[in-house]
Amino acid sequence: MAEEENGQEKTEDATFKRLEKAKDEGQVARSRELGTTLLLMTGGFCLLIFGSDLSAKIQSVMTTNFTFDRVSAMDPNRMISHLSLSIEALLSVVGTILVLLMLAGALGAIGLGGWIFSPKPIQPKLSRLNPISGLKRMFSLKSLVELLKATAKFLLVALVASVILYQMKGDLLSIGQQSIRPAISHASWIIIWSAIGMSAATILIALIDVPFQIFDNAQKLKMTRQQVKDEFKDSEGKPEVKSRIRQLQRELAQTRMMSAIPDADVIITNPEHFSVALKYDAEGLSAPIVVAKGADQIAIKIREVASAHKVPIMQSPPLTRAIFYSTEIDQVIPAKLYLAVAQVLAYIYQLRQRPTYRPSPGPIRNSQLNQQLEIPEELQFNAAGNLVS
């Protein structure tokens, strides 16, 4: 396994951030064999497709340029005209071949690793002049693989060339018995197909090289566990910073929650540990909604805000705990608590309609009503938040 300078082993796969950074630096998997194979195969098929046309163009140019009289030879303008016509005649075929070769070269370069433009790989580095580092690169696993790859490529191409020559020995011997034009055409055919056959041999090398380059690049980008932790801290933030952010978020949430208490219809308490503020809009809501809730100090603060804005406070421990532990802020109460909450709201509405009603500074106590409230067993909690068995 690869090791860092501090001795830690690189056992972790590269993170997304590490991969993006390596990509920006131009450190991606590349395969020269893939580019070589595409260039050779493209060149061979270009000769096969455009070879006859190119041969005819060359013969025409040669005939035109070597059959002229003495007057043309002594006239510089005619020589320039001959040259222009020759270039124009060959450019249509040669230009097409060059464009296809350029596209093949580009595809081979970006086929593995994608398109990347980064000046960092070509920037001068003094570390590259270090002879010890140079020796390490010479005797590294990658250098060994490159040596084996070059040897295998030579042997494979030599073997394919030998097989092709052996298979075409009859055609090669027959060339000497043909006239000049058929012999040239026949020899061109042999050369083109031999080139395609030997180029196809490099496909096997590319099929081996591409997975190796991907594996080798992944090994280089591996990280130690400490590097992963450090990167996580940098991206997610330090624990104390995240704690401060969560604290600010809680403070903002409490501020919004307290601002909703004056619009509540009733505050239900337990009687000191928990407070829940409920709001019911008969026209817009299908069920009462929890606009605020809290325990201990927050519960006291909720009751203080409610008293300041003359919101009725009703003491009902079982119902308060049931709502507190089963419902989040800005959510409607569970359907199984509809009846109990409806009884509390109806009682509060009746109190408000009395001519002698005056807001009480403390919680309203009605033991008879609390005994009538039906709290399902699955919603009966104790002060610790555990279900009452």
How would you sum up this structure, described in words?
The protein is mainly α and 389 residues long. Helix 2 runs antiparallel to helix 4, helix 2 packs antiparallel against helix 8 and helix 6 runs antiparallel to helix 8. It is elongated, with a radius of gyration of 43 Å.
What is the count of β-strands?
4
With strands numbered from the N-terminus, the spatial order across the biggest sheet is 3-2-1-4
Name the beta content range.
Answer: 5-15%
Helix proportion range:
55-70%
Mean pLDDT: 79
Q: For the CA atoms, what is the radius of gyration? A: 43 Å
Instruction: Kindly report the oligomeric state of this protein.
Output: single chain
What is the number of helical segments per DSSP (H or I, 4+ residues)?
A: 14
Gap from first CA to last CA: 56 Å
Low-confidence blocks of residues: none
From the spread of the alpha carbons, the general shape counts as elongated
> H/E order of the elements?
HHHHHHHHHHEEEHEHHH
The assigned structural class equals mainly alpha
Outline the biggest β-sheet.
Answer: 4 strands, mixed
